[in-house]
């Protein structure tokens, strides 16, 4: 391999082309990879969509779109483009409900091995940071499964965005120009951001006992949404010391902890002094903190989410949210009946990993009730059984801590009647009598149970 910078510059110019020319690498019947969140292409997506009338049977995979996809918008009937998604954003959810997109189930930690061992990838189109002096394009805010995707691809097109942060990595965070087939430049394209929005008063009520259960020196994982954000904001204002993080998604809550002096990563047994993550999504301030920061390390998702890795760290606290849980302890965090809302993601990975950790806690937090915006009807998020078609994200055998505004209970090791008793104790009081009645009908309510 050559080492002179001028050689890389010359190779760059040779491979530099327009989006319209680059997408000519896509042929009828191809499987095309768009990647995840911020790594998804913008100019290449538009150029590929423009070829709708001349192409046939193009299958596109992506994960969690942050803006409308042209291949979906131009072809909602999927005459040319069939788009599948590993984890739904709000945009993806609507497209899926309308039949313009399909869902691909997976445990997040398995995604790289699924690409390596099972899937065909004809063309990968990935947004990357600017090339460095050694000829490498950094994957930026999304390591996750990006390396596995591009290594499996027969052709690789990179969309170079100078606004993409350079995210230093443990491994799997970059691709060399010699492994790239075409280069497209995308100056002036903003990297998608999402605002940090803390939750409401109920979220704060749920967060309080969770934060009180976190010891100094703990290693944290936070999920996405107002409830985990509330936990993070409360931790930032607490007096906890020397916290660390090992999380699939790096969010603004960790930046808040860092600014307040709570986050040092000094007490971690694994990757000490490094905050470990697989992808990042948040504000521009978060991205500026991540850029070229040697105290942070991006790793592929099959390392970050591996329960065997997570279990090596003492006092690992995992905090995620869900949609509902039934009296047996089955958790759904991704669908309401057959209606797909998000995806399995890494919730089960971290629930398992936290259980393996000495002093660890895998916490699933949720509001006790949900009020439908259209009908105004309020229902309990703790239900007798999950509705037909609802996806079980965490099986009852792996469910540990459940938290609502009425308390926290640990289901691990409990019998069905003990689980029913524990879960009803943290349900909204207005629904407890009905839940007890259902538990009795299902023969999981003991005469001595507390009411």
From TrEMBL:
Catalytic residues? 248
Matching InterPro entries: AcetylCoA_hyd_C, AcetylCoA_hyd_C_sf, ActCoA_hydro, ActCoA_hydro_N, Butryl-CoA_acetate_CoA_Tfrase, NagB/RpiA_transferase-like
Q: Catalyses which reaction?
A: butanoate + acetyl-CoA = butanoyl-CoA + acetate
Entry protein name:
Probable butyrate:acetyl-CoA coenzyme A-transferase
What is the role of this chain?
Coenzyme A-transferase that converts butyrate to butyryl-CoA.
What's the EC number here?
Answer: 2.8.3.-
Q: In which pathway does it act?
A: Lipid metabolism; butanoate metabolism
- Binding-site residues, CoA: 223-227, 323, 346
Would I find Transferase among this entry's keywords? yes
Q: Which residues form the Acetyl-CoA hydrolase/transferase N-terminal domain?
A: 10-195
Chain ranges of the Acetyl-CoA hydrolase/transferase C-terminal domain = 282-439
